[in-house]
Each structure stands twice: as C-alpha cells, then as structure tokens.
Structure prediction request, 378 residues.
Amino acid sequence: MLFSHISDTHLGLQQYGLEEREQDVYDSFNQTINISIKDHVDFVIFAGDIFHTPNPSGTAILQMANALKRLKENSIDSFFILGEHDISRMRATPVPYVYHNLQFSKYVGNGKPVYHKDVMIAGFDKIRKNELQPFEEKFREIDILAKQHNGHKILVLHQGITEVNQFAAELNSSDLPKNFTYYAMGHLHDKSVKQFDQLGGPLAYPGSTEMTTSEGIKETEKGFFEVDISSQEAKPNWIKLDTRPQFSTKIESEDLDASISAILEKISAFDKKPIVEIKIIGKDIERDVVQTKISQIIPKTLYCSWKMLQSEDASLVLLNRPALIDEELFKLAVNALKSEKLANFAVNDLLPLFTSDQLDQATQLVIENFEQFKRDKK
Prediction:
C-alpha cells in the first residue's frame, strides 16, 4: 500500500504581488496530484496550511476542489487537517470544511481516528503553545487506541518539533503519542525525516511544495513524500517537484563585473525565469554604478532583489528563523491590542493578505468581522 504525504501547499499565495508566482504555487501543487494519480497511491494526506490565508480566493478554492475531484475520479481517498494559515480566529467555519461536507475529502484534525482499509489515521489541527495543556490527555487517549490497532497507524500534525527546528517548535518528540508507525508532519518548510527511539515510526516533514515569503530567497528543492506501508515499517520516499529556480548570491564590490557575468551565465541555463537575490558587499562603489550593472540581470528574471551592504549583515540570520519572528510578532500584537483574539486576527488573518497585496480581500475581511462584532454586541 502506498500513500502521499503533502503539506504546506499555501494555495492562493501571490508572492511579490506577481500572478506568475501564484500560478507557480498551483503548478507545484498539481504536480503532487498528478504524480500521486500516476503512481496509483491508495490515499493522500494533506498535513495543514492548505491555503495561504483563511479567506482564500475563489481561484485557490477551485484549485483544491478540482484536485480532490480528480483524486476521487481515480478512487483515491484523501484526509486533511488544518494549519495556522487555514484557521481564522474570527471566522467560524474554515474553508476546507466545505470539502469534508461535500465528501470530497475527510477531515481528521479533531483527534478522532478514521480508518482506511486496515490503516488508522488520526490528526490534530495546529496547536499553539498556549493551547498545549489540554492536548496532553488527548494524546494519551489516541495513543491507547493506536496501541490496540494491529495495522499501520498514522498521526497527522501541523507542529514544529524541537529536535528538528528549535526556533519553530511547540512540542518535543517525547510529547508525542508513542504507538504510531508514521508521523505525517506539516508546518516546517524544509524536508526532514527523523527516527526517535521512543516513537513507533519515522517523523517526516515533506516541506512546502513551493517557496513562500517566510523562507526568503534560496536555492532549494521542493517536494512531497510517497510512503510505502506494504510491510510493517513505513518507508517514506521523497519526490522532487519541478519548481521555478531561485538563488541568493553575495558579490564583493571589487568583483562586480565578473560576478554579474557569472550570474547571467547561470540564469541562461534555466528553462524558467528565476527569482534572484543579490547582496553586494563593499564600501567603495557608487549605487548608480551598481544599478546600471544589475539592470543587465533584471529583464532575465521574474523577480530580482538586490541590496548593498558595507559588511555581512548579521540580522539576515533571522530569515532562517521565520517561526520565531512570527512568535515575537504575535507577542507585540498582543501588547499593542491588549487581546489575543485581535492579535490572532491581525497577525494570522490580515497580515498575510497585506503582504501578498490582496487589499480587497483584507478590506472585505475587516468589514465582515466588524459586522460580526456589531452582532455580538447586540
């Protein structure tokens, strides 16, 4: 038996305000569906952050619906949980529930197990640090059920684990139920597979299916897992997707001409226009000169970011710690707004819309929630 483990698809993300980047997100996602159908997987698990915002565009909703329809047409069931990008603290019904109600896909984020043939599947939606205590008992309850089940047991979570990324962690591996044979994780955007002595199977992050804003610009691969559970051991095999190339490079100002030529040569080998970040380090160079040189590169890229630095900027390290930044941003919002509910709305609902230039959707969301506020006050 084979299943696909897909996470952090962030459908609807329009990075840099570019329609091409939104289409890139859909293209990568549809590759996961195409490959899953071609390889005749038995079922698919979506481990959270299906959408980039809790209020996704109609296009994003249709992309997911069409994918689930195609899976159904090929007799492939699917199961999903919600990540923090799917959950609005102000709106009552997350959009993915629609797919469950229409029987396109099965929601498993409430901790109640479902069964596909002889496979037990259970999951929990995104749990924030301040929500952890009540879940200790829920983890114990689901662990007992897993121990009693003879077939494979899959736990689906959208969480950071300390031993994988200490900056993006809400849980330690020792906090998890022990008796599952595969831990289908979401939330971290880099792929990872870990074995822990106290857990009954591998803990696996497939990573995001496309680069997102929080990851910065870097040369990396994106993909998902196909997991073989035909034996007692769950064996994840990572499948690489064909994504738009991205890279970041540092240039010493005295080597500017040679470095620009090297970048142009690298770009010429790509089938798609890449996304490029250039950091020029040095003091004795005019900005106008740099801009003239960079102008050779810009038309050959989809997006080109460049900056001049007098020396290595230590603050850039923060780009590798997006979850920590999110946590600090949330704390600042709570201090400013004096309300966790409003802070969640500002940071998790409004901010992603503003940063992806979805101003109309942001305005509509504010109006909807103001109307809800007035109704609640009556």
In short: Residues 19-38 form the longest helix (20 residues). The mean pLDDT is 88. Residues 2-240 form a domain with the Purple Acid Phosphatase; chain A, domain 2 fold (CATH 3.60.21.10).
